[in-house]
Amino acid sequence: MERGDKVVIHGESGSGKTTFLHLIAGILSADSGSIKLGGKELLNMPQSARDRLRATSIGYIFQTFNLLQGFTCLENVLLGMSFGHGIDDARARQLLTVVGLENRLNHYPRQLSVGQQQRVALARALANRPKLVLADEPTGNLDPANSRAAIELLQELCDADGAGLLVVSHDMKVMDSFSSKVSWAKLNRVTGEMK
Amino acid sequence: MKGTALWIALKSLRQHALSTCIAATSIALAGGLLMAVWILRSEAENTFARSTGGFDAVLGARGSQLQLVLNSIFHLEASPGTIPGDTALLLRRNPMVGRAIGRAIPIAVGDNYKGYRLVGTVKEMFEEHEYADGRKFKVLGRGALFDDDQKQALAGSFAAEKLGLKVGDTFQPYHGLTYVEESQHEDLYTVTGILEQSGTPADKVIWIPLKGIQNMDGHREETRGDISALLIKLKSKTAVAMLDPMFNRQGKDYTFAQIIPVMSRFFQKFGWFEKVLELVAYMVALSAAGSILAILYNSMHEKRREIAILRSLGARRGTLVMIVLFQSMGIAVAGIGLAFVFFSGVALVAAGIVRNETGVVLDLFTYHEVFIWVPIGMLLLGFFSGLIPAAKAYQTEVSRNLTPTT
After folding, report:
1. pLDDT number for residue A147
2. For residues B228 and B59, is the Cβ–Cβ distance under 8 A?
3. Which of A82, A110, A184, A187 is most worth mutating to test chain B (most B CB atoms within 10 A of its CB)?
4. Which one, A30, A43, A195, B48, has the greatest CB density within 10 A?
């Protein structure tokens, strides 16, 4: 993938797509092969360096959003920043405004609808101006209208920051939103490299 | 990163406020109890040793030294008996003893007014004697000392407050040291003054002339001239070496008791009780550490996903360890604050009881090294209690605890 590319990987459930994203994010260590992000090889990188790289260069969006329930919307976004380039309150507020949650800054996740929670997750993923955003079934819990809106918003946010976007999904509508599609079945022959 | 870890730790403690409070309270009970035991013991020992009323020794009837000191100085316990009223005169006539004794003030006990002791003595006690360095008893306001030949009384501040006595009031004493309503004397005493608070046992008695006790109606004729004890101020502490064997080994009629050593031995007898309380405090501390460990360990289990999310956001393992340790030490810090509240409560109640019973004012809030090392101990306890949960957080497998696979 080149900087700013947007790719969707489609494949069957349980076929290892999440594991693949975890490997790219450095959450899991690969046994062999090569994973490069911005020219840096992740495979031989120590855990702490992978953690640092994940904090500063990767945004991660989960199917179940994974917001921290004890933290408000704003705090969830700030938390994402705190492990990366540091807390930037103005940017966190701006991102939440862009995703339409300027009136929900101090709401807790349980006080939000599913669609709103997803938008907080988008803002958090973009908080550190990552080079790459990984989205694991980002619309899995959304209704069709919210799904389309979420994908469009995600693409807009990535465009604004020049971030690459790698989405895994088995949702046909999501796939239709991307010009670049990769079939999971062919992926074991692909070497992903972000320049 | 420390700031983030602290922020997350505090948020988490607030989120689990009930368990945080339970753990902090249990550690506070241990810390507060330890501080209370140590401060009460040391302060009581020091204060009672200081509360000698300005005297070095007591000479009384043959019997227990402790009973003599408690009765004469602290106005507790029964009198071990009486000694002849001219004892002071006889002592002064002895060239060796006379030179050793600076002041010898007679006291006589045997009556009370509604449970507060009447102590007969001479005006010298208030006019000349210093109950502490440079401090004499003072009569408040327009009051005055009693007249040695009149049925007059000078009330200690605490006794006056509790009995509601004021200058000009009259009262009829009761026979004996315990208040029995049927045993009232005919004699009518008038309060001539109230003593300023001295923080000594003198505050909780009503002072009357020596002759007042001796001549109280109903007292036996043959003992009218007797006194209960002589309170002695020595010219030199070395005189003890002469007086102690003279009265306690060679003589058979008197007991000579040096106040400070007697009180020290008295407190040493309570050493076992202090040890039991310390043991209880250590056990509470141990259970508090256990509860912190259990609460955090269980929360680590519940928070596996939360930990995995933090790791997915880029939190390092070390940051998670820091978060857990901040949590355990945060509980300890809250516990320290509560421990001081708990200690203050115990100290106030204990000081009140001691003052009620003895008139001695314990100052339990002055600096003591225990105020430093108990909180340090509590912090260490918090730290060590957090180690195992921290290790669990460190080992939490991220990938398995994140979103289920697609």
Report:
1. 83
2. no
3. A82
4. B48
Instruction: Identify the bridge partners of residue B80 per DSSP, sorted by sequence position.
Output: none
CA distance B184 to B181: 6
Q: What percent of chain B has pLDDT over 70?
A: 99
pLDDT single digits (tens) B3-56: 889 999 998 888 888 888 988 898 898 889 889 888 888 888 888 777 788 899
Report ipTM for this prediction: 0.87
Per-residue pLDDT tens digits for A131-160: 999 999 888 877 877 788 888 888 988 988
**Residues near A156 by beta carbon (within 8 Å), at least 6 away in sequence:** none
Name the token pair of B325: 């340790």
Question: Judging by DSSP bridges, how do beta strands B116-121 and B130-132 pair with one another?
Answer: unpaired
DSSP label at residue A88: -
CB contacts < 8 A, A to B, total: 89
The minimal CB distance from A27 to the residues B3, B398, B405 is found for B398
Which residue is it, tokens 């000081």? Answer: B351
Of A76, A78, A82, A141, residue with least CA distance to A107: A76
Residue B405's pLDDT is what? Answer: 37
Nearest-CA neighbor of A173 among A193, A194, A145, A136?
Answer: A145
From chain B, the residues in CB contact with A184 under 8 A are: none
Alpha carbon of residue B147 to chain centroid: 35
- From A14's Cα to the closest Cα of chain B, the distance in A is 5
> From the CB of residue A86, how many other CB atoms can be counted at a distance below 10 Å?
12
- Under the banding of pLDDT at 50, 70 and 90, the label for residue B237 is confident
Q: Any alpha helices (H) in chain A, and if so which ranges?
A: 17-25, 47-57, 73-82, 89-98, 114-126, 144-161, 172-176, 184-187
Beta-carbon contacts of B176 under 8 Å, excluding residues fewer than 6 positions away, are: B110, B111, B112, B183
What is the tens place of the pLDDT at every residue in B188-231?
A: 999 999 999 988 889 999 999 998 888 888 777 777 788 999 99
Nearest of B304, B339, B340 to residue B324 by alpha carbon: B304
The answer to whether B17 contacts chain A (CB < 8 Å) is: no
Rounded Cα gap, residues A42 and A23, in angstroms? 9
